[in-house]
Write a structure and sequence with these properties.
Layout lengths: L5 E2 L1 H8 L3 H9 L7 E3 L2 E5 H15 L4 H12 L4 H5 L10 E3 L1 H7 L6 H10 L2 E4 L2 E4 L2 H12 L4 H29 L5 H25 L2
Antiparallel strand pairs: 1-3, 2-3, 4-6, 5-6
Helix pairs in contact: 1-3, 7-9, 9-10
């Protein structure tokens, strides 16, 4: 993995396409993390550059500086990718690396500080340097599709909390069933059976729901 480059203030501002005065303003508003100090010299790195480019992109999309500041605070105080993924990456889900502006594009202006904080609390989002990590490409695609259909992201996330509760209960039921009759080493091999049962039962339940008068 390549080492991060470091920049003096003037070079960082030039690369980000802003003035030094604007950079100082962003730093005073705590829109970017503090630089590394070496005596009287402030050193910025690629994470600062990524954040500045994100701020520019969000401003172009109509976000206010106050809203961006709240997003930055939620982002800086969110769980990092290690906390999000735990000991290892998900065994079947594909994590997705996103810049904050890419995340905003997925949710059509609904990537608010409140929704971002809710997604972090749910365990969907974590931080990795200048990027955001979503725990699952499938969940990202489904949630963004629901938002495009007109369902508010806040309600999608609230529904996800309820789904998480039921999913945990189903996982515990299946695990207990297997461990009563097999060993823990059999769980990975039998895991697809649990998924098939849940998918089939959900499909049948949706049929019953849609057929109700």
């Amino acid at each position: 993995m390549a080492e991060k480059r470091e920049y003096r203030m003037e070079e960082l501002a030039r690369l980000a396409g802003i003035t030094v005065r604007t950079l100082r303003f962003y730093r005073e508003r705590k829109l970017i993390p503090p630089p590394r100090r070496e005596g009287r010299i402030a050193w910025y790195d690629d994470d600062h550059l990524a954040r500045l480019r994100t701020i520019t992109a969000l401003l172009e999309r109509g976000h206010t500086l106050s809203g961006i500041a709240e997003l930055a605070e939620a982002f800086d105080h969110g769980r990092d990718v290690g906390d999000l993924l735990g000991v290892g990456a998900p065994t079947e889900e594909e994590p997705v690396h996103l810049t904050p502006e890419e995340l905003a594009d997925h949710f059509a202006g609904e990537a608010t500080p409140e929704n971002l904080a809710a997604a972090m609390e749910l365990g969907y989002l974590g931080a990795d340097g200048g990027e955001i990590v979503h725990i699952s490409r499938r969940l990202l695609d489904v949630s963004s599709a629901l938002v495009r259909e007109g369902i508010p992201l806040a309600e999608v996330l609230e529904a996800a909390k309820q789904v998480r509760t039921h999913a945990d209960a189903l996982a515990e039921l299946f695990t207990d069933l297997v461990l009563r009759h097999a060993s823990e080493t059999d769980l990975p091999r039998l895991r697809p059976l649990a998924r098939s049962v849940v998918e089939a039962e959900l499909s049948l339940a949706l049929d019953r729901k849609m057929r109700k008068p």
